[in-house]
Amino acid sequence: MSFMDQVIARSKPLWDAAADERFLRQMGEGTLDRQQFLDYIIQDSIYLRDYLRAFAMGIVKARSLKEMQVFYSVLGYVNDSENATRLQYLKDGGLTDADVETMDKKPACAAYTSFLLEMAEKEEVPEILMAVMPCMVGYYDVFQTLLKRYPEVLNGYYKPLVLDYTSDMYKSCCDYWTAYCDEVCADLPEERKERLSEIFEAASRQELYFWQMAGGKPGPHEAVENKVPLVHCITNYVTVNDVANAILACGGSPIMADDVEEVADITGISNALVLNIGTLNTRTIPAMIKAGQTANAKGIPVVLDPVGAGASALRNQTVAELLEKVQFSVIRGNLSEVSYLSGIQTAARGVDVSEADLQNDPIAVGKAVAKKYHCVTAITGAKDVITDGRRVAVISNGVPQMGKITGTGCMLSGVIGAYVGANEDFFEGTVTAITSMGMAGEIAHEAAKDKGTGSLRTGIIDALSRLDDRQIGGKGKIHYEAWN
Question: How far apart, in whole angstroms, are the C-alpha atoms of residue 406 and residue 280?
Answer without folding.
Answer: 16
